[in-house]
Amino acid sequence: MWHTPTSASGQIYRRVLAVGIAWWLLLNQPNTLAQLSTPLVLDPNKAITQYSHEVWNDEALPQSAVQAIVQTPDGYLWMGFEEGLARFDGLRFTLFHKGNTAAFAYNDVPVLYVDRAG
To answer: Could you give the angle at the alpha carbon of 91 between the alpha carbons of 65 and 30, nearest 5°?
Structure first.
């Protein structure tokens, strides 16, 4: 089911999230784009209704404004918010904040880095 954005910030949030997920999916392909022998396109013999899709709304995340985004070597996509941290595994979001994670002294996650150890 498609959700209509209710505000300009909601539209920006959805665009940033869509770009981040597309980037994550492209980086996790077994071949790089340069190595592909066929272009990445939809099959013209299939109706658009034959493809599956997921839509995540603001309810899946602590808030709509993403402050930071990074991908770790294990494939997870991490997003920082003023109200906590979200990990996306390609199927679902797992939320971390001071209410459910003892290591959080406060919720604000303005920057994310991947260190040498991953």
So the answer is: 105
Residues 6+ apart with CB under 8 A from 46: none
Long-range CB pairs of 74-81 (<8 Å, 24+ gap) are 74/118, 75/24, 75/28, 77/20, 77/21, 77/24, 78/112, 79/20, 79/112, 80/109, 80/110, 80/111, 80/112, 81/107, 81/108, 81/109
Please state the pTM of the whole predicted model: 0.55
Q: 61-92 pLDDT, tens per residue?
A: 777 788 999 999 888 999 999 989 999 888 88
Instruction: Give me the helices (H) in 1-118, please.
Output: 8-27
